[in-house]
């Protein structure tokens, strides 16, 4: 039987741990295993969990020590409202002791009560190890941990253990890729405790202003509009969010508002669906999109049985809030998969080929087929793979990448397919899931597939054909549900001819193929790439001189976009206070590659001036180049121009003079087609020395 994923709670107290485990098991225990570690019990699990939930930030360091390297979420927990009516009956001005095992937890409870409007009493905190005079207190409040306090009080009110918020429960569902509908079940179970408490408060305190204030506290954490009424359609309560949504003041009956009457009549026509998963009978309608005072709202009507009577509950959520919640979930998913950083919007290039490539990739993203990306190193193959995942139906699943060129054969196999317990010396207890299992429900990116050993190619072929993997040291096949995107910078078809790559694997991979464009074939956009990326880093525009851009456009860019980004990073730190980038600002390796002068060339400008004054042809050559600016001209054109002026210079002598000028950074010589032209430094030099 396949092992279920494991969720572990880490708490300081075993009572809290057991309570949190039960609350999650009751909803999704059939889908995942739930266990825990409590500091006071020190119960170690028999295998490493897939996710750890801590009861608060005070447990984070403990969790990191017990379960190193496991993804961790800090729970947001809330008071359920249990015994709150007893708290409200405490006389005004009474000093009350709030009990917990930690100061931070006690203060959290106080903050929750005060934020809900329970401000008629004075709060003091007690935590384990603290000494007090118990005779000062007739009342003590304890959120489920009253057994920790050694003192006796006249009135000890158990507020009940704090439960997981719906927000944290959704994070758990998102991590394990479970249906978010389970959040509704958890929310309704969680909500019923609040409704029970609210009804008790109403019966205890009547319709007083204090009652309405504390109803708002009980339902405050939900963040939605709540309206409750009984079988006779009498108004029981509504929270402030609902009043704001309907534009109804405190002294108005919300059930009489035209908007609520219209919505109520809509729900009267809908049948209620029984929910058999809950211990307490509850029925609800489907969600309905309604418009309230110009705002789109998602509304649900539920029926709850309380004390043998039926009570109807209306819940309203703003559509805009739901959209933001969805975006938040996507961000959470990205945080669980930090490698997913790019979308199609991040891919540069507005030339026809790049635009066509992105459009084709978007079409491929909507499918489940394998994609093969071919391109030179640094052309954005992984960026394209991440963008395909982000735009695919699997975007809420994991994106897992592996570079097959950076690992040994034995390591690749265990990383890709995992291993069972005892598979080899040093194998961890319980074994370990491989990347294919980790990517279940999402996408696996096989980078540098052309460098995979032939033995690994055979195993990959089986995965593509049968969609199962077998862990190292095991005979049990494990079914997987992943989408495969592969990439390479090697000529696979040539490798097939030489026996370095399997033809059957190639044709399995090459279902949908994409080819990235090298940067040297996008010369017209290099200036835009440079200025945009540099502006992002420096938070201000920085221009490139004409000479610098000409050099960079003529450069071969063997490292493609990766090299371009490295260049911009270099300029960001070295030219932070400049408004323009000139050739001498570029890194020396690039200048040497282009044949331009570097900082290590030290002939002074004074020596150049003397050379120019003593050598008439040198002045004349500079004049011809100056008059041709900004256009570049070849040596043949320079020679013919000098001849027409009566100045005779041999081709060998001209070449010598040009090399001198180039060595000192006064001219730039490009390809034969581009010719040579004066740099900004050369123009300044000519004006200073030759126009006097």
Q: What is the CATH architecture annotation of the largest domain? A: 3-Layer(aba) Sandwich
| Quaternary state of the chains | single chain
pLDDT averaged residue by residue: 80
By helix and strand content, what is the structural category? alpha/beta
Low-confidence stretches: 204-209, 276-280, 598-604
What is the CATH homology-level superfamily of the largest domain?
P-loop containing nucleotide triphosphate hydrolases
Tell me, briefly, the overall form.
Answer: elongated
What portion of residues belong to β-strands?
15-25%
CATH topology of the largest domain: Rossmann fold
Strands, count: 28
Tally of separate domains = 5
C-alpha termini separation: 93 Å
